[in-house]
Specification:
Elements lengths: L18 E5 L21 E8 L10 H7 L1
Antiparallel strand pairs: 1-2
Length: 70
């Protein structure tokens, strides 16, 4: 793999251990039941431009809820 420039964003390779996308499988969603009733998780679909290996945030920001949903 050629070296990256300092300003180029890192990209996750196929099969790498990094998250690159978070989405709900519509056929597995149980409408109205926890955690699918949480507004932040309804229609969840995130494409991540850079690899993610951990989540951080203030207490009450939803870290545990997101991990449970995954």
């Amino acid at each position: 793999m050629p070296p990256r420039s300092r300003h180029e964003k890192p990209r996750a390779l196929a099969g790498s251990p990094f998250l690159t996308q978070i989405a709900l499988h519509a056929d597995r969603v149980q409408t109205g039941q926890y955690p699918f009733a949480i507004p932040a998780l309804q229609d969840l679909a995130l494409d991540l431009d850079t690899p993610v290996t951990f989540l951080v945030g203030e207490n009450g920001s939803g870290k545990s809820t997101l991990i449970e949903a995954l």
